[in-house]
Known about the structure:
The strands form two sheets. Strands 8, 9, 10, 11, 12, 13, 14, 15 and 16 form a nine-stranded mixed beta sheet that branches. Strands 1, 2, 3, 4, 5, 6, 7 and 17 form an eight-stranded antiparallel beta sheet that branches. α3 (101-114) packs across α4. The protein is globular and about 55 Å long. By secondary structure, it is an alpha+beta fold. β12 (258-262), α6 (272-283) and β13 form a beta-alpha-beta unit. The protein contains seven helices and 17 strands.
Amino acid sequence: MSSTSVIRSNVRCQVDGASTIHNTSELADKNWDDIGFGLVPTDYMYVAKSPKDGVFTEGELQRFGPIQLSPSAGILNYGQGLFEGLKAYRKVDGSVVLFRPEENAWRMRMGAERMCMPSPTVEHFVHAVKQTVLANKRWVPPPGKGSLYIRPLLMGSGAVLGLAPAPEYTFLIFVSPVGNYFKEGLAPINLIVENEFHRAIPGGTGGVKTIGNYAPVLKAQSIAKAKGYSDVLYLDSIHKKYLEEVSSCNVFVVKGKVISTPAIKGTILPGITRKSIIEVAQSEGFQVEERLVAVDELLDADEVFCTGTAVVVSPVGSITYLGRRLEYNNGVGAVSQQLYSALTGLQMGLSEDKLGWTVGVH
């Protein structure tokens, strides 16, 4: 029997074991009315390795828990790592669907190239995500109660001392049921424009989902939250007058039937929710412009909203810039609500998916 066959049968055996466990309880014993956006340990995680040849093993499901790494692993010493984020939803008929997982796979491959890492094929990525969700199916919240957040990781797990690409890589997926990312839910959030700190620079890694993009925003975010703001809106690092993105989501500005969002030019993450909202908005009759968006345009905007896998669509109630507080709407803006309803209807299987964006998990 080939090594591939052994790996495949190992996965199958573990999935069958997971199914046996899950049949005793259709849903995990959880208060689904009270879940926020925090880690809930689930049953299984997926792990695959790539040695020096850059080709990943098929991988296997393992019980969720700690992993073993050398103190000199590339991920720990030089931050050679990427992550992705996507969700699984339970439909009213009990089936489970993913939302555009192949887009996450392509984005991971793009990021891996920038970070000198091998990456799983698109097919491998999607298949591994499906296996992980299926093994943890009892943790997918009931319809309308949340989603199963899926976190694929790609990291340099091999030992390295000098600055160089790691000799071995690990592709790992874990999951957690989640509710709303912001405590406000689908209610306006309050942002502050950051003038001192910057999220990314031209020629850097702001356009890929490397782990090193996130820790640097924690200081500005912590300061903002201590002052009562929900999050930080960053400006470009050169002119300091063009909008880039919020700490972990893209930003859109609405004026009449025109929706503007900063163009993807290497410092802004090409969000999959961003891409989806652009397509949905165009199908709903809006004109969408991807361009430089000056911070002064916030002054006469009708609405502002953010998008991301975690937040989906988050309306902005106010933005504070240079001490001036700009307020939008008394509640959720009409455009934000329209696009949120249209997108979540597709994600949750409440409306017909004519675009082929959802993928069933069987």
